[in-house]
Amino acid sequence: MRLVKIGVASVNATIGAVRSNVDRCIRLATAMAEDDVTLAVFPEQVVGGYAAEDLVQWQAFVESQRRELERFAVETARLRTVFVLGLTVGVDGDLFNVGALVHGGKIRAFVPKEKLPTYNVFYEARVFSRGVPGLDLDARGVFCGDRIFQFDFGLLAIEVCEDIWSPDGPMRRRCYSGAEIVCNLSASPFRAGVVGTRREMIATRAADNQCTIAYANLVGANDGLVFDGGGFVNQNGRPMLEATRFREGYAATVVDLDRTIRSRREASTWRSDLEAFRREQTPVPVTALHEKTADRSKLRYPAPPPGTSFFLPSANLPVKTPREELLDDFYDALALGVADYYRKIGAFRRIGLALSGGRDSLLTLLVAHRAAELLHPDLEGAALREAAGSMISAFYMPSRYSSDATQNAAARICADLSVSFMIVPIEDAFVRELDATRTLLGPGGPEPTELTKQNVQARIRGQRMWNWSNTSGALFLQTGNMSEKALGYTTVGGDLEGAFSVIANLPKTVVIALLERLEKRFGYPGIRATLDTTAGPELAANQSGEAELMPFEVLDACLYLYGAEKLAPNEVALALTSVFPDRDPAQLALWAEKFARLFTQSIFKWVQSPLAIHLGSLDLDRERALQLPVVQRTEWKGG
Q1: Which residue range forms the structural domain that includes residue 234?
Q2: What integer pLDDT is reported at residue 370 of this predicted model?
């Protein structure tokens, strides 16, 4: 047996906080060394934070990362664990996103990322140079390029994030060149379904390349990106470790590297591919490092988890359904996004929102409360709920159209959460603003439209929230959802206002499903009180969002088919007949056309909305996912 203990660390790094980030790494490095970890893998760009975007164009920012990595090396010199960390390194005219190998108090090598993503939320090719096969550069006395590394426990390869997502990444040639362990340093943002995709992809790569993969992921939020952390160790397709997500820390497991050698000898197809590689390509050079690594004499052979055997998995069925797991992930991601935005900016003293008694603001409040709990990690139980509630202010601002049902629902949930609740009517201001609007329109001018009357109410609320936020130093949360944002069912200067959008990338049907899940989990009466009301903005008499737009399930299907699948309106209409076979095809066609028209006309609105939390691949965020011109015509859509 050749036993090795591999640790994967999730670090909540803040962009630019190079010293604090490295302090976190040193604490975890020390803990892993005390746990007899042989090889410790940290996330991508953990030193400088991710995604630094154009900040890497400041030379001082890049140099500070090198200084802090050198400090990490010095402060871990007494530890015999091998460490791999991510940072930005400059070499002449190049900037590389690298994995750094540190051992024995020295920086041993930099290995650049080769696959630079420029899609969805990623813009790396804008600022970074790609690593290439055979690269051999000198980064002020440290090798920077394409190598694998020989230690007393085995052969090690390093790669960064996107490199593993391509079947033709550097892992293939490095494993054919002898690498047994591949360390993948990642900063992979949370998005719907990503954990299952990662798990399957890592297992596939480990099996295809007959290697052990150690995958470490960043945790925490920066801007609207939420990194869910966690990590994996997979040996030749067999899962050995899956670390807990949404928390900072590390997890470790023991693997027998002799098993990897045996698997390679048994896999005839892999050996055939290896023969072809040797005929056609040059092996990746090996750098031998002779310093002794951590003592492995106390390591024990990896036994099956309790309740399982080498031949049988656990008999315990999953407690959650896949739907419940996804909804809980959304809740965790949203709360972490708000908590880190609040904590890392450091400019806020409390959190506030306009609470309408409707579904969207209710979910935003529940997320804000959980975020406030995350900001009190030393408390629990009733003390934690009270401390979180004391950080939040909720304001119910009724007009003549507001109902007793929504007011009671808003009051009820604030009582459930121990959140400050204040009723501040806007009726008098509404009348004054309508009179002022008539004055602006001039004598004999038109009467303010019904839509204007609705928008006036929303803008009064938005202005009041900003005035309160400015004075109290509070983080003002915007509460709108993705579906209504997509169709412009929102008011510029009104309910589109806020410092941070919490659920702006969550479709309305998911908002409702998540509320139902949270009611099941927590049992707050205020959730049911809200779900029993009619979904609508209450800016006019008897207003219903579905009546004015379309049924939410149809709206969200249109959003997916048009925005994600990129279907033309007539194709959306045809697809809707399969999704909703019991609905009138003619009506579905009308809704599809209405969606496409309103979506295009509303882009000018949603590009003005606040920064929002990233949750999927269809974010309505011009700088993140769906980049569309504001000024466009729709002649291309056809009929």
Answers
A1: 3-288
A2: 98
CA-to-CA separations, 525 to 325, 361, 372, 404, 520, in angstroms, rounded: 23, 16, 20, 16, 11
Residue showing tokens 């056309």: 593
| Residues making up the binding site | 119, 188, 354-361, 455, 479, 484, 605
Tokens matching residue 276: 């072809």
Same domain for 416 and 350?
A: yes
Return phi, psi of residue 201, to 5°: -65, -45
Binding-site residue numbers for deamido-NAD(+) are: 455, 484, 605
Tell me how far apart the alpha carbons of residues 295 and 185 are, in angstroms, rounded to a whole number: 24
Tell me the pTM.
0.94
Q: Do 342 and 197 share a structural domain? A: no
Same domain, 442 and 359: yes
Residue from 304, 265, 331 nearest 506 by CA: 331
pLDDT in tens, 248-269: 999 999 999 999 999 999 999 9
Give the sign of the dihedral formed by CA 458, CA 460, CA 463, CA 465.
Answer: negative
Q: What does the alpha-carbon distance between residue 493 and residue 495 come to, in Å, rounded to a whole number?
A: 7
Residues 463 and 532 in one domain: yes
Do 460 and 385 belong to one domain? Answer: yes
Give me the residues of the chain with pLDDT under 50, please: none
Nearest alpha-carbon partner for 156 in 74, 214, 200, 72? 214
Task: Please report, for residues 42, 111, 132, 137, 470, the alpha-carbon distance to residue 145 in angstroms, rounded to integers and kept in the order given.
Answer: 19, 5, 8, 6, 50
497 alpha-carbon distance from chain centroid: 23
Task: List residues with catalytic annotation.
Answer: 44, 113, 161
69: alpha, beta or left? (left if phi > 0; alpha if psi -120 to 50): alpha
pLDDT in tens, 492-514: 999 999 999 999 999 999 999 99
pLDDT at residue 304 in the model: 87
CA 41 to chain centre: 20
How many whole angstroms separate alpha carbon 272 and alpha carbon 425? 76
Amino acid 624: pLDDT: 67
3-state secondary structure 551-566: CHHHHHHHHHHHHHCC
> What's the domain count of the chain?
2
